[in-house]
């Protein structure tokens, strides 16, 4: 029987609740939300499954040691006492990521990274007479050192490259949305593949791809070429392949339309290429259409989700008019639709001219954003209100 241990999944601000739900649905135990992170308990096989499946995780970290240190010198001494031969060989490469939030440590994170690197290199020099090499881009082992006041937590990174690097996006536009954020927005919208889905400003297609993968129950990182744990001494390739195949068997065909629009031919071409790379071209259709000249051409409930230009990302001549056009297009052309979009331009948002039914604080990179929802009813809102009251009266 495999041993259970505590792990930490890191994420973006605002996606902690979504990630916690993902972990619970996947079968994690003792799920606890933190700030931009969620801790959980699972075994080796679950670590493989989490890396393959989680849509809103950036990294899956396995803590290996926690200790107190009054300064960087004491941290160095205690890091050097860890038996690093349990985790890497002298001919392995490694890299350090450090975060420091402590008044006791007068130096910055970069210096702490160097100090930690020296501790590990000196450990090997004393044990073997040689020092392992550092490789910042493609290390065999990525080590995270997190200092909070006098507590130092050391973890090894099972993911390797950030999990937002799904392996399908080869071409992007000027302001592509992060894959983890895109997946998080899709999950926050409540979309489960049971309505039609439209991204009317689809750019390079990231939101469409994440929505289609969700609708088809395709693991988020099925297209990745490598994970960090594949270089670990305890990597169980048979267990990994068993989990990989069991996840593939659960893939289904989406039962509703998934459609993207963009007015730029270059964006449409990039989106189609990325969709093909993700092996989703049979599920997603992309058209060169100006959203402001469009209307709903199909029947049934629809989810619209998009990432419009903010002004910070792409230059717009009249941002207020642009957002007014969004509202007018939705009002006149998209009945029976739940609409979601993310924006950092809170002033321009007022010009949409529709009442939001939800506002969720988010971050897109360094930008403070809101993820907003509008409900477009079939017929007038007044008629919807009257029908709802009539049903309540009849009940």
If you had to describe this structure to a student in words, what would you say it looks like?
The structure is a single chain. This protein is of the alpha/beta class and 395 residues long. It folds into 2 domains: 5-157, VC0802-like (2-Layer Sandwich), CATH 3.30.2130.30; 179-217 and 252-378, Rossmann fold, CATH 3.40.50.150. The protein contains 11 helices and 15 strands. Strands 2-3-1-4-8-7-5-6 form an 8-stranded mixed beta sheet. Strands 11-10-9-12-13-15-14 form a 7-stranded mixed beta sheet. Helix 2 packs across helix 7 (237-248), helix 3 packs parallel to helix 4 and helix 5 (179-188) packs across helix 6 (206-215). 41% of the residues are buried.
CATH architecture tag of the largest domain: 3-Layer(aba) Sandwich
What class would the helix/strand composition place it in? alpha/beta
Distance between the amino and carboxyl termini? 54 Å
What would you call the shape?
elongated
Provide the residue-averaged pLDDT: 91
CATH class of the largest domain: Alpha Beta
Uncertain segments? 382-395
Percent in helix: 25-40%
> What order do the strands of the largest sheet run in, or round the barrel if closed?
2-3-1-4-8-7-5-6
Question: Major β-sheet, in short?
Answer: 8 strands, mixed
Number of domains: 2
Determine the number of helices (DSSP H or I, runs of at least 4 residues): 11
Q: At the fourth CATH level, what is the homologous superfamily of the largest domain?
A: Vaccinia Virus protein VP39
CATH names the topology of the largest domain as Rossmann fold
Give me the strand/helix succession: EHEEHEHEHEEEHEHHEHEEHEHEEH
- CA radius of gyration: 24 Å
Tell me the strand percentage band. Answer: 15-25%
Number of strands: 15
């Amino acid at each position: 029987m495999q041993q259970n241990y505590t792990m930490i999944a890191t994420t973006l601000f605002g996606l902690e609740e979504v990630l916690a739900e993902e972990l619970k649905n996947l079968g994690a135990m003792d799920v606890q939300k933190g700030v931009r992170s969620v801790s959980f308990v699972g075994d080796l096989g679950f670590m493989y499954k989490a890396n393959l499946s989680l849509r809103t995780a950036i990294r899956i970290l396995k803590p290996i040691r926690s200790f107190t240190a009054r300064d960087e010198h004491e941290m160095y001494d205690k890091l050097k006492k860890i038996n690093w031969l349990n985790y890497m060989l002298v001919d392995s490469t490694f890299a350090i990521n450090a975060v420091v939030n402590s008044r006791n440590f007068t130096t910055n994170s970069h210096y702490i990274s160097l100090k930690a690197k020296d501790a590990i290199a000196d450990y090997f020099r004393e044990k073997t007479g040689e020092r392992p090499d550092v490789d910042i881009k493609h290390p065999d082992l990525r080590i995270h050192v997190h200092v909070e006041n006098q507590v130092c937590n050391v973890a090894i990174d099972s993911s390797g490259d950030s999990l937002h690097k799904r392996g399908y996006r080869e071409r992007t536009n000027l302001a592509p949305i992060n894959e983890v954020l895109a997946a998080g927005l899709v999950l926050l919208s409540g979309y489960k593949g049971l309505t039609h889905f439209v991204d009317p400003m689809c750019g390079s297609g990231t939101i469409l791809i994440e929505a289609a993968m969700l609708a088809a129950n395709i693991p988020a990182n099925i297209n990745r070429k490598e994970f960090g744990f594949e270089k670990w001494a305890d990597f169980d390739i048979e267990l990994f392949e068993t989990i990989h195949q069991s996840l593939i068997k659960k893939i289904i065909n989406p039962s509703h339309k998934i459609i993207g629009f963009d007015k730029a031919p270059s964006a449409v071409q990039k989106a189609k290429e990325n969709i093909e790379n993700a092996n989703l071209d049979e599920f997603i259709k992309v058209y060169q259409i100006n959203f402001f000249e469009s209307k709903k051409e199909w029947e049934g409930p629809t989810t619209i989700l998009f990432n419009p230009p903010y002004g910070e990302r792409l230059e717009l001549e009249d941002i207020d008019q642009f957002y007014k056009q969004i509202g007018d297009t939705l009002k006149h052309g998209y009945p029976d639709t739940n609409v979601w979009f993310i924006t950092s331009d809170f002033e321009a948002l007022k010009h949409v001219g529709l009442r939001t039914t939800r506002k969720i604080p988010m971050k897109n990179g360094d930008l403070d954003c809101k993820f907003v929802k509008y409900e477009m009813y079939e017929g007038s809102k007044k008629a919807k209100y009257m029908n709802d009251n009539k049903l309540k009266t009849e009940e």
